[in-house]
Specification:
With 426 residues, the chain is an alpha/beta fold. Helices cover 31% and strands 15% of the residues. It folds into two domains: 1-37 and 188-246, no CATH class; 42-185 and 255-406, Alkaline Phosphatase, subunit A. Strand 6 and strand 7 (169-170) form a beta hairpin.
C-alpha cells in the first residue's frame, strides 16, 4: 500500500520550483475503501465596490427565491450551494470618509466604537487572522488579488485594499497576472517553464497512481498549462507595447472580463493545488473616479459617478449591467470550483467563498443591509440553497466570526460581533 505523501512537497523541478498536488485518492485514510479524509477548508472573500442596485439584488422580505433576482440569476447553476444573508450591517463612523471605510474596514477586526489607531476603524483583517492559524498547511500563506489596472492613483490606498496586516499596514495586493503566476508556480531561481520541469518528475510518480488520481493530475496540469499559455501571450504583448501607459486592459490581448477571468483562474489553481487556503479578491477599487471601460458591456463610465445618479432609470439600468457583469464572473469561479472533484465532493463543497460590498446603498452611502452571498458548504457545515434573513442591523462581524471559527481560528469575539451568525450552520 502506498504511503501518504506530503502534498506540499510533491514534486521539485530544476531551480527548486515546486508544484503541489491536487486532492488524490491516496490522501484518503488507508485502505481507500474507508471514508476519505476531509479535505482542508478554503476561504476567499470577493469584493465588489459601491454596493449593488438593491431591487435587482434583494428579493422581497421572506421570498426564498433569491436566485430569480436579475443580478443573481448567473448563480443558478450552483444555486444549491449558495446562501444569501440579509440584514447584515456595519457601523458608519461619522466624520470620516465613508468609501475609505467601506473597503479598508470591510474585513477589519477593529471595534468601531473603540480607540482607533488610524483614521479609520482598522485592524488585522479576517483573512490574516485565519492565515495565522492555517498557513502551516500550505506553501503560500495567503493570496491578495486585485483587478485594478488604473494608473492615475489619485485616490488613497484605503480604497484599493481590503486586506491589512494591521492599522496602516496594508497587505499589498497583486494586480499583474504574470506576477501572480510566478508566485504560484515559479518559486525557485529557474526561469524555465515550470510545467516542463515538473512533468518529467511526475511521469515516474504517476506509475503508482490509480486511474482516478492520474486523471486528476492530468486535469490539474492541463489547467496550469492553459493559464501558462495565456500568460506567455500577455508577456509577448507587453514586450512590444508601452505597459506603463496602459491604464486598464483596453487593448489586445485582454478585455476587462478576460483580465478578471485570468486572475480568477489563478485563484482556482491556487486552491486546487493546495498552494494556499486563504485569499482575497477585489473586482475593482472603491470610489475610483476613473471611467472604466467595460468591453463586454460596450461603454466607458465612472462606476462611482453612476451610483450618485441611480435614481434615474437610464443610469440604474447601466449600474445593473455592471452588477450583473461582476456576478457573472463570480459565478464562473464557483462553477470552476464545483467542477473539480475532491474527496467525497467538489472543491466548492470544501470552500467558503463570500461575495459582498462595503456599501448597502451606493447612492445614500448607507452600511445597512449589506449585499452578502456565501458559496460553498464549508465541508458540509453550512446549510446552503437558502436565504437567511437576519434581524436589522445584525453586525457583519457575526458572519466573520462564524467563518473564522469554521476555519479553525479559535476565536470567541470578532470586532463588534454579538456572537456567531445564527442560522448559518447546518
Amino acid at each position: 500500500m502506498m504511503k501518504h505523501i506530503d502534498r506540499r512537497k510533491f514534486l521539485f523541478g530544476a531551480g527548486g520550483s515546486v508544484m503541489a498536488l491536487p486532492w488524490l485518492e491516496m490522501n484518503a485514510e488507508e485502505p481507500v475503501t474507508k471514508k476519505l479524509k476531509e479535505p482542508s477548508l478554503r476561504f476567499a472573500s470577493f469584493y465588489s465596490p459601491m454596493g449593488f442596485v438593491r431591487d435587482h439584488f434583494f428579493p422581497e422580505k421572506g421570498d426564498q427565491d433569491f436566485l430569480s433576482m436579475p443580478t443573481l440569476k448567473p448563480l443558478q447553476n450552483v444555486g444549491g450551494k449558495i446562501t444569501m444573508i440579509t440584514g447584515l450591517s456595519r457601523v458608519n463612523v461619522r466624520g470620516i470618509d465613508v468609501h475609505n471605510q467601506c473597503s479598508s474596514c470591510y474585513l477589519s477586526s477593529a471595534n468601531p466604537h473603540g480607540e482607533l489607531k488610524s483614521p479609520y476603524p482598522m485592524d488585522r483583517t479576517l483573512d490574516h487572522l485565519i492565515a495565522d492559524k492555517v498557513s502551516h498547511r500550505t506553501p503560500i500563506r495567503s493570496l491578495e488579488l486585485n483587478c485594478n489596472t488604473f494608473k492615475d492613483l489619485k485616490e488613497s490606498i484605503y480604497l484599493d485594499n481590503i486586506s491589512w496586516y494591521g492599522p496602516e499596514h496594508v497587505a499589498t495586493s497583486m494586480k499583474d497576472p504574470l506576477q501572480v503566476y510566478k508566485r504560484l508556480f515559479k518559486t525557485g531561481k529557474s526561469d524555465k517553464d515550470i510545467t516542463d520541469l515538473i512533468l518529467k518528475d511526475a511521469a515516474n510518480f504517476e506509475k503508482n497512481l490509480s486511474r482516478h488520481d492520474k486523471d486528476k493530475l492530468d486535469e490539474y496540469f492541463t489547467s496550469v498549462r492553459e493559464i501558462e499559455k495565456q500568460i506567455e501571450k500577455l508577456s509577448r504583448y507587453y514586450a512590444t507595447h508601452e505597459r506603463a501607459d496602459m491604464k486598464e486592459p483596453d487593448e489586445a490581448p485582454m478585455t476587462r472580463g478576460e483580465y478578471i477571468r485570468m486572475m480568477s483562474k489563478l485563484l482556482v489553481l491556487a486552491f486546487q493545488g493546495d498552494l494556499t487556503h486563504v485569499a482575497t479578491f477585489m473586482f475593482a477599487p472603491e470610489r475610483w473616479g476613473t471611467p472604466q471601460r467595460f468591453h463586454e458591456l460596450n461603454f466607458t463610465k465612472s462606476h462611482h459617478g453612476l451610483t450618485h445618479s441611480q435614481g434615474r432609470e437610464d443610469v440604474k439600468k447601466i449600474l445593473a449591467q455592471v452588477d450583473l457583469f461582476y456576478v457573472e464572473l463570480f459565478a464562473e469561479v464557483l462553477e470552476q470550483l464545483d467542477a473539480i472533484k475532491e474527496g467525497e465532493g467538489t472543491l466548492l463543497d470544501h470552500s467558503m467563498i463570500t461575495l459582498g460590498s462595503g456599501l448597502g446603498d451606493g447612492k445614500d452611502h448607507t452600511m445597512d443591509e449589506l449585499p452578502i452571498i456565501v458559496a460553498g458548504s464549508a465541508n458540509g457545515r453550512i446549510k446552503t440553497g437558502r436565504i437567511i434573513n437576519c434581524p436589522e442591523k445584525t453586525p457583519l462581524a457575526n458572519l466573520w466570526l462564524s467563518q473564522a471559527q469554521l476555519m479553525g481560528a479559535g476565536m470567541e469575539q470578532f470586532a463588534d460581533s454579538t456572537g456567531p451568525l445564527k442560522g448559518l450552520l447546518a
